[in-house]
Design goal:
- By secondary structure, the chain is an alpha/beta fold.
- It has two domains: 270 residues, Rossmann fold; 186 residues, Glycogen Phosphorylase B (Rossmann fold, 3-Layer(aba) Sandwich), CATH 3.40.50.2000.
- The chain contains 17 helices and 20 strands.
- The strands form four sheets. A nine-stranded mixed sheet has the order 3-4-5-2-1-6-7-11-12, sandwiched between helices. Strands 15-14-13-16-17-20 form a six-stranded parallel sheet, sandwiched between helices. A three-stranded antiparallel sheet has the order 8-10-9.
- β6, α4 and β7 form a beta-alpha-beta unit.
- The longest helix is centred in the N-terminal third of the chain and has 23 residues.
- It is globular.
């Protein structure tokens, strides 16, 4: 079947988080199953420069919600056979900064216009691509709030093509002042609580939840969690009403994440031959300016430095950690005060704590591969990819039992000679439980046979996209066969 896949970011062209990885990997897996996929992406500054075969396939894109002339470009996503469609609208997308924020980290004030136009382009293509481009989608797959107005527009325009909306993180909803409803020429009759309105605002994500034919999230547990008042971000009632159309399909990980072949690593290894992992630990310690101590537990963390990711649990207990024989390496950026506190610890205990602010793809691979233990104390985590990367590399995750973390990590259990599990989980995101679980991990690390068995269990897990792609295929086929 033909699938039009809408995303606001995709690796390696533009990335702020896991959505970019999924937007490459899932279409690749669907393509491998024989489906025709077109990925629609905004034409951000710098994207075209990364593409070698780019050409225009629609010179004058119908304006619709587009506030300026636009073109539709076509290219091949680097290192794949995937066809990429780019909405080339310089007034909206060619600007310095990130895809959603300016260089100072503030949201672009015209984001509703930018992504409203992008959604309009997706809805128009769903209806007109067959006639204008000789390629008709059987369905449209949207991702997060930046594309979630598309299913609503398809309904308003009586487009017969069905739609799927995947919620990668319910906390980001695309809520904007009510005047944007008229500014985007949306039907005023739809600005009510059963359609576009959410607490007096226009909500892109709510529009998608109401009007998409099917809704998915990125893990089965998260699909259940967002139907509760605690995790529903104000939309739990709506999600419960749509429960029969809501499912959780666990993300997979890209084949690039493989300790045998990882292009970002100087040494490689397998579960049977782990010498390369020991060399990577030494390499990471040297690179980070830490003493090279093979018998010290090396703890890694790569994430946005925000409350959601539980970084405060790390800071609240860090002084207690330093009574243990551990080293800590953190890579990330986010809250300025958190960055300041981490930098303070890096200067206060340079032989124990090293922090790199910002993001670096090579360094992230080195930390995940070279560490012994990987921290993910997130308060909520729709799916999480890093814990799956870590297990694939024999680095045991320590995480809060929520969302996709609980769905993927098997908790460590040691009874006599029996060793089970692939990591360490704590039930409540509070400092005491986090610190107690860290103590359990330290104790296991010093039992070398136990730790090695846990590593083997972790590396035996298969997190490739094959299973998820088959589940999406089944979902699509069920949707298309519905009366």
């Amino acid at each position: 079947m033909n699938i039009l896949f809408l995303t606001s970011e995709i690796h390696p062209l533009i990335k702020t988080g896991g959505l970019a990885d999924v937007s490459r990997s899932l279409p690749l897996a669907l393509h491998a199953l024989g489906h025709g996929v077109r990925i629609l992406l905004p034409g951000y500054v710098g994207v075209q420069a990364q593409l070698t075969d780019i050409h225009c396939i629609l010179e004058d894109f119908p304006y619709g919600l587009l506030p300026a002339p636009a073109r539709l470009l076509e290219a091949t996503l680097p290192d794949t056979a995937l066809t990429l469609w780019i909405l080339d609208c310089p007034k909206l997308f060619e600007r310095e900064g990130g895809p959603y924020q300016d260089e100072k980290g503030k949201d672009w004030p015209d984001n509703p216009a930018r992504f409203g136009a992008f959604c309009a382009a997706g809805a128009w293509l769903a209806q007109q691509a067959g006639a204008r481009l000789n390629w008709a989608p059987a369905l449209v797959h949207c991702n997060d709030w930046q594309t979630a107005l598309t299913p609503a527009l398809m309904k308003f325009w009586a487009c017969p093509v069905p739609s799927v909306l995947t919620i990668h993180n319910l906390a980001f909803q695309g809520n904007f002042p009510a005047h944007w409803c008229s500014s985007l020429h949306l039907p005023s009759s739809e600005f009510h609580m059963e359609s576009l309105e959410f607490h007096g605002q226009l909500s892109f994500l709510k529009a998608g939840i109401v009007h998409a034919n099917q809704i998915t999230t990125v893990s089965p547990r998260y699909a259940r969690e967002i139907q509760t008042p605690q995790m529903g971000c104000g939309m739990d009632g709506l999600l419960r009403r749509r429960a029969s159309d809501l499912s959780g399909i666990l993300n997979g990980i890209d084949e690039l994440w493989n300790p045998e072949t990882d292009i970002f690593l100087p040494f490689h290894y397998t579960a049977r031959k782990l010498q390369g992992k020991a060399r990577l630990k030494k390499h990471l310690q040297k690179k980070m300016g830490l003493p090279v101590l093979p018998d010290v537990l090396l703890i890694g963390m790569v994430c946005r430095l925000t409350w959601q990711k539980g970084i405060d649990l790390v800071l609240d207990t860090l002084e207690d950690w330093l009574t243990e024989e551990v080293q800590v390496v953190v890579l990330g950026s986010g809250d300025p005060e958190t960055e300041r506190q981490l930098a303070h610890w890096s200067s206060r205990a340079p032989e124990r704590v090293r922090v790199v602010l910002g993001f670096n793809e090579v360094r992230s691979h080195e930390i995940i591969a070279g560490s012994d233990l990987f921290l993910m104390p997130s308060r909520f985590e729709p799916c999480g990819l890093a814990q799956m990367y870590a297990m694939t590399y024999g680095t045991l995750p320590l995480a809060h039992a929520t969302g996709g973390l609980a769905d993927t990590i098997l908790p460590c259990r040691v009874q006599g000679h029996s060793v089970e599990g692939t990591g360490f989980l704590f039930e409540n995101p509070v400092p005491r439980e986090f610190h107690e679980t860290l103590g359990q991990a330290v104790a296991c690390f010093h039992q070398k046979d136990v730790w090695k068995q846990l590593m083997h269990h972790a590396m035996a897990r298969d997190f490739r996209w094959n299973k998820a792609a088959l589940e999406y295929q089944t979902l699509y086929q069920t949707l298309l066969s519905a009366p």
